[in-house]
Amino acid sequence: MRFVQRFIPPLRIGGVALDLSFIVLLIAINIAxxxxxxIL
Length: 40
Fold this sequence. Notes:
Blueprint: H1 2-7, E1 11-13, E2 16-18, H2 21-39
Antiparallel strand pairs: 1-2
């Protein structure tokens, strides 16, 4: 998780910072699982 946070800064909306690294990590895991499922 911290590895992803180094490359993806939080999205600042007014006074709130939204951590996008968790969302990006979930999407990457989902894509990887789908790719592995298709290959196998």
